[in-house]
């Protein structure tokens, strides 16, 4: 009751505001969750282009080690020497920045930030986030973080270069690599802002989902998208502070002479005074965030896919409860597997065994999810919208990359595979590509809601097929290279006999990577062109069940012009036997569909009638009060 | 000039793409297929999934078979045989899952593509199925983990008493190899003692270090356990001997170790592979800076008898450079000098 009242209240308040919006409050310092979502999306796309471009640069180096790169001098300046060779330290900086940007800026902020913001209020039936102001701060902290990281790209000593995991002592000692000077300082500051942004966002998502659900929207009626955003926010809230702690101790070691991570170091001709620190401590702290982080990146993508696959299969998602339980399982287990990244770090082998068992347990909920997706497709009536194609692609990557996780989670096998290209193949498929496809599926699916227009489907198909084939051509061959033992983060492999082969395969990968990158411009064109010139969308173009499709074409601040609709059923009533249409929206009361109700739903009809009448009373009471 | 031509070419290409796009949009509007629930593209996409599966499956099979000898590195250690077996068992299990799930994933789109006349099955849940596909993977994974755990415990268990000790120290950007000499006990070290003549910081006031020596390559006997004592002096490194299936991080301030038994001498491996150039190698697999990609060390595996001979020929640090013990207290110095004269 109380929620409904206050929601009503804020609706009228918002209506008053509407007229005063000027450019700045509407597009820049907006507190409207929809605009903030779009801000995250556009910023994420910007970063994806930067991150992708960096990868093209280092793929050129790996595919064509002999190449004369002088033509890049206008962009890279001194990082290309007089013979046209790329500086090996800058190579490491490229890899580091690529990883940081993609993991944090694109797949965390760009994915969670966009869709949690955009969809949570729309799908649970809320006027806005619990705190619009904090939400705005969340975006601007992310923005500042990005600005700082961007500046670090242009430092004379280069950006951070110790890998995206920035292990000390390398990242702590300027003598070890120039990127660990100013570049690393900026990395740490940028990440601090980023963590603050994530926490502000996460608190908001959690509060909103718990408190602002519309009438009837119980947790058991929430779309799986919301479940996934909710759990993602919980993971973030519990793990990002640990990254902050790790970063803070690193700051102390770098600037204030402490020895949290440093011990017994002789470098640059002198013995440092630090003793008693532990480099492995940092790894524990980092991966305590780092592993949950991979699920922060993946879960929203899985949530989006669940929604898209169900809608376009015209079929309920199979095993709604099992999907939720799997995600809960993943959420909890993701906190107890971190040391599988450290099997050969000098970790106590007994701990290694424990983490091997825990790691392979987490594969089970992942497997359940895959089987549920497959069963949802089975005997469906599939419509291949671009979003649907990307979702099917995601499932494929999730399988391919998830299976290689089973090798890596086995510590005995990981001895050989750790820090080789096998790991690179694993996480680019299961995390990178899968989440990227989730992001794309989300954009294609909710574009009509974001901008009131449709994206061009044919261009979407072309974009999908080029990207899908491209991703496999890039990352599948990396398995072979990894099994052959090629180490990660190598500037070139020609110094070793065991890795002096596969130059052709590496060239192939590089060409495929560049083509795949170029194919993304099809998407860019489609995105920005359709924003202004796309076909006008209908109100519910995918004939979907969830609440966001009950809003006007261009929902204002407050989302629904009148009353927020109530919810009477779960979001997956597709192709229900007896129903006239192949979908029934969540706002349709059970009492209105006696022809398709299941026996136990017939029971609920009585209860529902009571709620409806109660609601009408409230409405009447309100109206009389206002007039 | 070239740049100009390329620019014009790109411009032309773009404008053609643009025109095709516009015409295509107009055609769909005229035909009214943008109003349909599923346009003709639905069939095409459904078909493409199957085509993708067939083509990619064929490519994968062909390449995996053709390249097998290239990516499957020869195995040079006892535990390597075990971990490789685990690897290929896991490959078989996951391979079956990979193939079955992908056949379903790509065939369903074809089979169940949209048809106005059909209605999708309303099949929201089935507890039996969920239980089956929770329990079956759990059991399979448990079997895999248990075999992995056994192997892992054996590999990481204590080294046999008689294992030959070799110290490998990583630094930017090379490896320093130290042997304990005849006593098989390494002398103490301290990073504060490091200087140009004493790169590993060996503490020569420890008598055990009198017979320690360094070598440019790692020499080990075949068929006898060897333990690598691993450390780093500046940043993290990682000792990776791919043919030995051996990897262990080198951490400043925290010594690590890895023991193993080589199964084939370098000569035997050369004969087997028909490659007279073959060497066992060590590479670094923890990013450590500019020269990370060039930290190469060679391991030479020899017959035990030959190893003994080689060991006897090596000259300790203090023989090569008596000044290392010049500052020791007299008693120790005398001992050191005796040791020097014995080893000359
Ligand atoms: C099926 C369950 C999975 C298992 C058993 C598993 C296991 C592992 C293991 C053991 C490693 C460490 C490998 C090494 O460094 O030697 C690893 C690396 C990684 N995994 Fe997974 N994984 C699974 C699923 C996932 C998922 C779902 C994601 C992301 C969404 C993911 C992302 C990553 C990333 C990013 C790394 C590499 C981090 C780095 O070293 O830079 N994994 N995985
Ligand atoms: Cu992990
Ligand atoms: Cu290294």
UniProtKB/TrEMBL annotation, chain A:
Gene3D superfamilies from the UniProt entry: Cytochrome c oxidase-like, subunit I domain (1.20.210.10)
Cytochrome oxidase subunit I profile domain residues: 23-592
Transmembrane segments: 40-62, 90-120, 140-167, 187-212, 224-252, 294-310, 322-344, 350-371, 383-408, 420-447, 459-487, 507-529
Subcellular location: Membrane
Alphabetic keyword roster: Electron transport, Heme, Iron, Membrane, Metal-binding, Respiratory chain, Transmembrane, Transmembrane helix, Transport
InterPro entries: Cyt_c_oxase-like_su1_dom (IPR023616), Cyt_c_oxase-like_su1_sf (IPR036927), Cyt_C_Oxase_1 (IPR000883), Cyt_c_Oxase_su1_BS (IPR023615)
Family: Belongs to the heme-copper respiratory oxidase family.
Name of this protein: Cytochrome c oxidase subunit 1
Organism per entry: Rhodonellum ikkaensis
From TrEMBL, chain B:
Cofactor(s), names only, from the UniProt record: Cu cation
Transmembrane segments: 6-23, 44-65, 85-110, 131-152
Keyword vocabulary terms for this entry: Copper, Electron transport, Membrane, Metal-binding, Respiratory chain, Translocase, Transmembrane, Transmembrane helix, Transport
Keyword field contains Ion transport: no
The enzyme's E.C. designation: 7.1.1.9
GO-annotated molecular function: copper ion binding; cytochrome-c oxidase activity
SUPFAM superfamilies in UniProt: Cupredoxins, Cytochrome c oxidase subunit II-like, transmembrane region
Residue stretches making up the Cytochrome oxidase subunit II copper A binding domain: 161-313
Domain of life per record: Bacteria
Biological process annotations from GO: ATP synthesis coupled electron transport
Family: Belongs to the cytochrome c oxidase subunit 2 family.
PANTHER family documented for this protein: CYTOCHROME C OXIDASE SUBUNIT 2, CYTOCHROME C OXIDASE, SUBUNIT II
Role summary: Subunits I and II form the functional core of the enzyme complex. Electrons originating in cytochrome c are transferred via heme a and Cu(A) to the binuclear center formed by heme a3 and Cu(B).
The protein's name in its UniProt record: Cytochrome c oxidase subunit 2
């Amino acid at each position: 009751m109380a929620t409904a009242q206050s929601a009503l209240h804020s609706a009228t308040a918002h209506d008053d505001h509407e007229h005063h919006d000027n450019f700045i409050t509407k597009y820049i310092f907006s507190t409207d969750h929809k605009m903030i979502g779009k801000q995250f999306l556009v910023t994420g796309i910007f970063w994806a282009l930067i991150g992708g471009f960096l990868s093209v640069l280092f793929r050129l180096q790996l595919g064509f080690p002999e190449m004369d790169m002088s033509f890049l001098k206008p962009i890279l300046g001194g990082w290309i020497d007089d013979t046209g060779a790329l500086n090996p330290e800058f190579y490491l900086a490229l890899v580091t920045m690529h990883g940081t940007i993609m993991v944090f800026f694109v797949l965390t902020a760009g994915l969670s930030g966009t869709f949690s913001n955009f969809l949570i209020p729309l799908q649970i039936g809320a006027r806005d986030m619990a705190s619009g102001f904090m939400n705005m701060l969340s975006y601007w902290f992310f923005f500042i973080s990005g600005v700082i990281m961007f500046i670090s790209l242009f430092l004379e000593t280069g950006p951070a270069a110790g890998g995206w995991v920035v292990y000390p002592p390398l990242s702590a000692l300027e003598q070890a690599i120039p990127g660990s000077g100013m570049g690393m300082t900026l990395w740490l500051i940028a990440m601090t802002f980023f963590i603050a942004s994530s926490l502000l966002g996460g608190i908001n998502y959690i509060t909103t989902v718990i408190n602002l659900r519309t009438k009837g929207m119980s947790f058991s009626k929430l779309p799986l998208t919301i479940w996934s955003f909710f759990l993602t926010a919980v993971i973030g809230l519990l793990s990002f502070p640990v990254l902050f702690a790790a970063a803070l101790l690193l700051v102390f070691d770098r600037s204030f002479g402490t020895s949290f991570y440093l011990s017994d170091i002789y470098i640059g001709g002198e013995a440092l005074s630090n003793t008693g620190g532990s480099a492995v401590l940092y790894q524990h702290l980092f991966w305590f965030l780092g592993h949950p982080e991979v699920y922060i990146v993946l879960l929203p993508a899985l949530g989006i896919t669940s929604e898209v696959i169900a809608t376009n299969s015209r079929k309920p998602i199979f095993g709604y409860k099992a999907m939720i339980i799997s995600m809960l399982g993943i959420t909890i287990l993701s906190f107890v597997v971190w040391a599988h990244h450290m099997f050969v770090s000098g970790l106590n082998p007994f701990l290694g065994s424990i983490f091997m068992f825990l790691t392979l347990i987490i594969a089970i909920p992942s497997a359940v999810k895959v089987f549920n997706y497959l069963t949802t497709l089975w005997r469906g009536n599939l419509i291949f919208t671009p979003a649907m194609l990307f979702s099917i692609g995601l499932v494929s990557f999730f399988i391919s990359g998830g299976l290689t996780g089973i090798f890596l989670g086995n510590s005995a096998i990981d001895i050989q595979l750790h820090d080789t290209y096998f790991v690179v193949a694993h996480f680019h498929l299961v995390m990178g590509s899968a989440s990227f496809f989730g992001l794309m599926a989300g954009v294609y699916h909710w574009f009509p809601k974001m901008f009131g227009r449709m994206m061009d489907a044919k261009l979407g198909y072309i974009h999908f097929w080029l990207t899908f084939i491209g991703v496999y051509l890039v990352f599948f061959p990396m398995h072979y290279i990894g099994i052959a033992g090629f180490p990660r983060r190598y500037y070139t492999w020609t110094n070793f006999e065991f890795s002096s082969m596969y130059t052709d395969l590496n060239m192939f990968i590089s060409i495929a990577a560049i083509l795949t990158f170029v194919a993304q411009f099809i998407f860019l064109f489609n995105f920005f062109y359709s924003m202004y010139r796309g076909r006008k969308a209908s109100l519910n173009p995918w004939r979907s069940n969830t609440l966001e499709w009950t809003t006007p074409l261009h929902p204002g601040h407050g989302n629904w012009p009148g009353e927020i609709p109530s919810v009477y059923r779960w979001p997956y009533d597709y192709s229900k036997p007896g129903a006239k249409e192949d979908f029934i929206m969540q706002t349709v009361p059970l009492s209105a569909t006696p022809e398709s109700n299941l026996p136990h739903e017939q029971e609920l009809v009585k209860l529902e009638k009571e709620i409806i009448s109660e609601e009408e009373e409230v409405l009447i009471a309100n109206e009389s009060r206002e007039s | 000039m070239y740049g100009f031509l390329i620019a014009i070419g790109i411009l032309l290409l773009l404008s053609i793409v643009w025109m095709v796009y516009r015409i295509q949009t107009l055609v769909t509007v005229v035909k009214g297929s943008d109003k349909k629930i599923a346009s003709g593209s639905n069939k095409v996409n459904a078909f493409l999934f199957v085509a993708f599966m067939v083509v990619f499956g064929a490519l994968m099979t062909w390449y995996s078979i053709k390249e097998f000898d290239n990516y499957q590195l020869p195995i040079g250690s006892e535990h390597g045989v075990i971990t490789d077996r685990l690897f290929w068992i896991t490959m078989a299990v996951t391979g079956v899952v990979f193939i079955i799930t992908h056949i379903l994933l790509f065939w369903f789109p074809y089979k169940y593509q949209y048809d106005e006349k059909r209605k999708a099955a309303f099949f929201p849940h089935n507890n039996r199925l969920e239980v089956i596909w929770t329990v079956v993977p759990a059991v399979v994974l448990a079997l895999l983990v248990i075999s992995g755990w056994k192997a892992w415990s054996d590999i990481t268990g204590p080294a046999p008493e008689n294992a030959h000790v070799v110290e490998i120290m990583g630094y930017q950007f090379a490896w320093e190899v130290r042997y304990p000499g005849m006593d098989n006990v390494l002398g103490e070290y301290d990073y504060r003692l490091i200087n140009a003549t004493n790169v590993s910081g060996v503490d020569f006031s420890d008598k055990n270090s009198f017979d320690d020596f360094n070598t440019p390559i790692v020499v080990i006997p075949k068929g006898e356990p060897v333990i690598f004592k691993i450390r780093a002096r500046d940043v993290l490194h990682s000792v990776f001997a791919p043919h030995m299936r051996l990897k262990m991080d080198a951490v400043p301030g925290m010594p690590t170790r890895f023991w193993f038994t080589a199964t084939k001498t370098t000569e035997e491996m050369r004969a087997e592979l028909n490659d007279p150039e073959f060497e066992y190698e060590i590479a670094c697999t923890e990013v450590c800076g500019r020269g990370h990609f060039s930290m190469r060390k060679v391991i030479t595996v020899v017959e035990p008898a030959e190893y003994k001979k080689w060991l006897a020929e090596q000259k300790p640090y203090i023989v090569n450079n008596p000044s290392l013990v010049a500052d020791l207290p007299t008693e120790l110095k005398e001992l050191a000098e005796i040791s020097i004269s014995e080893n000359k």
